[in-house]
Amino acid sequence: MKKNIKCFFAGLSLVAVIISGCSGSSPTPVADVAKEQVEAVPGFELAAIRSGEELLNTSDIDGPILYSFWASWCNYCQKEIPYIDSLYSEYSDEISFISVNVTPDDSVDGARGFIEQYDLQMPAYFDLDGIASSSLGVLAVPTVVLVDRQGRIVEKLIGPSAMQSEEEFVGKLESLIQIGKN
């Protein structure tokens, strides 16, 4: 009986965290945390969503990275990801865009359907084992994580932040490009 109660509350807590990510909360910048962060985010591998694409090892990426975490069932993700994808063609020469489906909270078919439905062009990957989410401290979707050339988290935006101020979001991308540039 006690085990069932513990499982119930653990499940309830997980649902609360997931729902809070899809709430209308304001973005949560972590620029202050990034200033203190000395070590680079460790590399990890992601499996490609589209067939024919290869496994991605993030340690092989040179330059700044935009990680966009999403789930196919998340309403805010359905609005934000197409906007971020629209910036991919403009900024992909200077920033590596990595779209990451939080697979443990989604289904493989749901993720593939999402990519097809929105005709996403940016590279899309599964976080099959949750390593990417864990490494970057992602607890809710949508979440955008900006990582500089040295592999340090510059900013983490939780919730539908890119859509709240498109001009401000583009400014963050422009700043990311300049960080550490010689």
From TrEMBL:
Ranges for domain Thioredoxin: 35-178
One Pfam family named in its UniProt record: Redoxin
GO MF term list: oxidoreductase activity
InterPro entries: Redoxin, Thioredoxin-like_sf, Thioredoxin_domain, Thioredoxin_ResA/DsbE_sf
Entries under CDD domains matching the protein: TlpA_like_family
PANTHER family the UniProt entry points to: THIOL:DISULFIDE INTERCHANGE PROTEIN DSBE, THIOREDOXIN-LIKE PROTEIN HI_1115
Name of the protein: Thioredoxin
Species of the source: Paenibacillus apis
Lineage: Bacteria, Bacillati, Bacillota, Bacilli, Bacillales
